[in-house]
Write a structure and sequence with these properties.
Helices cover about 20% and strands about 25% of the residues. It contains 6 helices and 7 strands; from the N terminus they run αβαβαββααβββα. The relative contact order is 0.22.
Length: about 200
């Protein structure tokens, strides 16, 4: 059974230096010694169809080299969001959960970036354990989406998009989700405007 997920957005108060901010852990200081800024956008999604639509919208702002990290409980909508990303990117193959194969590569059908979809849930270690997946090789020409990637793949890119999906827990039919997008690094400085 999975431990309950508590949204880092709700429970973290960053210290002035950003050293304990989970959105900046693993961040590499710039030439001036500053950590990359984070831009946060929070949305409410009320159905799986809206979650897939959000994925299609996000696909419009993604580019080769982007790292997207998805966090949320089982059933929160991570794979549904990724399915929308795949549709928006115009990739081949049905986007399904890669839990048992760890990673799936979906080549582009429209001369865009491939979608590399990774499920790091069963991987206990950090980036060292994931080296066999060659994500660092795939990243420059692909969009890499990692479910359960917190604490495991931050070192792949100073610029990354964290997507935190919170849902009601327990025995409920509530399909409402709070989706918090955290763009980390200069690449995501215009995230709010790009989604407007």
């Amino acid at each position: 059974m999975e431990a309950p997920h508590n949204s880092p957005a709700a429970e973290t108060v960053p210290d002035p230096a950003g050293a304990t901010d989970p959105d900046r852990v693993g961040a590499v200081p710039d030439a001036a010694g500053s950590l990359p800024e984070a831009v946060t956008v929070t949305l409410t999604v009320t159905s799986p169809e809206q979650m897939q639509d959000l994925g299609r919208s996000l696909a419009r702002v993604l580019a080769p080299g982007d790292l997207v990290m998805l966090t949320g409980e089982l059933g929160a909508g991570k794979t549904t969001l990724t399915r929308g990303l795949g549709e928006g990117l115009g990739v081949r193959g049905a986007v399904t959960s890669p839990t048992f194969v760890i990673a799936r590569v979906h080549p582009s059908l429209v001369q865009g970036p491939a979608l590399v979809h990774v499920d790091a849930y069963r991987l206990g270690g950090g980036l060292d354990e994931m080296e066999d997946l060659d994500l660092d090789v795939s990243l420059p020409e692909s969009v890499v989406v990692v479910e359960w990637g917190d604490g495991k793949v931050e070192e792949l890119s100073e610029d990354r998009l964290r997507v935190l999906i919170d849902r009601a827990t327990g025995d409920t039919d509530d399909e409402r989700r709070e989706v918090t997008l955290v763009g980390i690094g200069a690449r995501w400085a215009g995230l709010r405007e790009a989604l407007a």
